[in-house]
Amino acid sequence: MPEIKGVVAAILTPFDDNDKIDLDFVKKHVRWLEERGAQGIVPSGTNGECSSMTVEERKPLIETAVANKGRMFAIAGVGTTNLAETLGLARFAESVGSDAIMVMPPYYLRFAPEQGHVEYFKRVMDAISLPVFLYNIPGCTGIRITEGMIDALSGYPHLAGVKDSSGNLPNTLGYIKSYPNLKIFVGDDHHSLAALTAGAAGHITGMPNAFPEFTTALYSAFAAGEDASVHQVRLGLARDCISPFPEFGVNKYILSLRGFPLRRSRLPLLEMTDEQKAAFEKLMRAHGLWII
User: Fold this and answer.
1) pLDDT, tens digit, for every residue of 96-116?
2) Domain annotation for the chain: domains and CATH numbers
3) Start-to-end CA span in the chain (Å)
């Protein structure tokens, strides 16, 4: 298994006009990402619209991504709102050869005590031997992965790290400083270089889905000991251009211009309108970022 570090694409899930997952698209996309320098993929995560899919839909998505990952590693997103389904997905990911899993706190019951979340994570970690990454995305779950939670799980040798999508750089840096034995991945495009400089293992976001060049250039320059600041500026600008538009929809639209079929998202997410497509392209061109 390759070392788990570097540029990791939180891959999207392509739904066709019949609302079915296009697994041929997934195969092609994963191989395309490898060709363009990504080190890893996360299927069935936030960018993959995991909360809009059933467990039975997520299984073939994970299996297809893992089977086509080539030299990359795959961290399967297995988080759900309930323990039974999370355990089922975790065991399934292990059975099909995933290199690790990523699990968020069970969202919706935001008032559950911290110890409840600790016991939840323990049950998951007791069920498998794969490396486990905790997923901190309080903007979606309403629950922060606290230092207390991490400390309570420190006895598990397969606790591998944390993906921090809080968007709060001090929070990411705090994880890096407090847990040098864990791999901390930054989930914010604006903070990638700062996190890498502080010791982060890498970068997991949706940006590599359609524009892997922006993230791989930054990581390659950093890994080579070169000044990567120009790449961070470009990555941040690209994120700013994408942010006003339907994010998953815009990535699928960009990929349709790069040789992939145009695929949809699931409600309540919306597609790009023609006006939005034109405005997005104009914005990217104005910043010299249109590389289609």
Assistant:
1) 999 999 999 999 898 999 999
2) 6-224 (3.20.20.70)
3) 32
